[in-house]
Amino acid sequence: MTALSVNINKIALIRNSRGRNYPDVNYFAERFLQLGASGITLHPRPDQRHARYQDVVELKALCDRYQQPLNVEGYPTPDFLAVVKQNRPAQCTLVPDDPQQVTSDHGWDLRQHAEFLQQICQELTPLGIEVSLFVDYDNADIALAKEIGAARVELYTEPYAEAFGTADEEAVWQQFARAAQLAQQAGLGVNAGHDLNLQNLPRFVQIPNILEVSIGHALIVECLEQGIEATMQAYRQILQSK
Ligand SMILES: CC(=O)[C@@H](O)[C@H](O)COP(=O)(O)O
Ligand SMILES: NCC(=O)COP(=O)(O)O
């Protein structure tokens, strides 16, 4: 079954727009876990505009209580790595974001950054943290992630979301399926995320053996439209047969 890791950044964004702890990120993370999320993702950025490093501490404790994995995503700055090492989430997804970036918009150039990423994998893996590398679907070097020492790759799915419902959908989906196959053949687990939603997810997860999808932006909007319970039920329905 494909796991759904709910990305909680957008709850943190609303919280940070006022001075108080409202809405409470932990409360909503717990609600998502109670409603069938099989993990929580957060992506603290250097300016901590939404998720904060303290959230990692609290969400790790929550996920441990529910025996579900916490996935911490981000660019591996020294501050980010220190928080990850201290809290030991089940998974750490390394993303090549600039500090100013509005959101993630590309994966790693694995050849160019191989040494840098290998060093980090060597630091995190012995701590029991599975390292996943954020990659583009048309990265011809995807198998290199294995040699670098990663356990998984996360396919950056925005190009699929963009193509969904257009004449390009099938061709782009096929390319994603091929990328997933190449990674799996290299011995990597395959995750996926960015701009997935209730509409485009069913087709995407026809790609075999996607281990985890992390979804936040659209899922929170869907909760506003349909309510948290109906939204989570709809995601469970899509993923239960996978
Ligand atoms: C790596 C990835 O695709 C997501 O983590 C996404 O970047 C969410 O980050 P924001 O919530 O800051 O847009
Ligand atoms: N890794 C992708 C993620 O966590 C959520 O991305 P999005 O659904 O907020 O675009």
TrEMBL record:
Annotated Gene3D superfamilies: Aldolase class I
Q: Name one Pfam family in it.
A: PdxJ
> What family classification does the UniProt entry report for this protein?
Belongs to the PNP synthase family.
Cite the position(s) of the site with description Transition state stabilizer. 154
Family matches, as PANTHER family: PYRIDOXINE 5'-PHOSPHATE SYNTHASE (PTHR30456:SF0)
Which gene is this protein's source? pdxJ
Record-annotated active site: 43 (proton acceptor), 73 (proton acceptor), 194 (proton donor)
Reaction(s) catalysed (UniProt annotation): 3-amino-2-oxopropyl phosphate + 1-deoxy-D-xylulose 5-phosphate = pyridoxine 5'-phosphate + phosphate + 2 H2O + H(+)
Its signal peptide is: none
Q: Which UniProt keywords apply?
A: Cytoplasm, Pyridoxine biosynthesis, Transferase
Q: Report the NCBIfam families cross-referenced here.
A: pdxJ (TIGR00559), PRK05265.1-3 (NF003625), PRK05265.1-4 (NF003626)
State where 1-deoxy-D-xylulose 5-phosphate binds. Answer: 45, 50, 103
What's the main place this protein lives? Answer: cytoplasm
Source organism per entry reads Agitococcus lubricus
Q: Which SUPFAM superfamilies match?
A: Pyridoxine 5'-phosphate synthase
> Any idea what this protein is called?
Pyridoxine 5'-phosphate synthase
Instruction: Give the pathway annotation.
Output: Cofactor biosynthesis; pyridoxine 5'-phosphate biosynthesis; pyridoxine 5'-phosphate from D-erythrose 4-phosphate: step 5/5
Which compartments is it annotated to reside in? Cytoplasm
Q: Which GO terms describe its biological process?
A: pyridoxine biosynthetic process
TM ranges are: none
Q: Which GO terms describe its cellular component?
A: cytosol
Provide the function of this protein.
Catalyzes the complicated ring closure reaction between the two acyclic compounds 1-deoxy-D-xylulose-5-phosphate (DXP) and 3-amino-2-oxopropyl phosphate (1-amino-acetone-3-phosphate or AAP) to form pyridoxine 5'-phosphate (PNP) and inorganic phosphate.
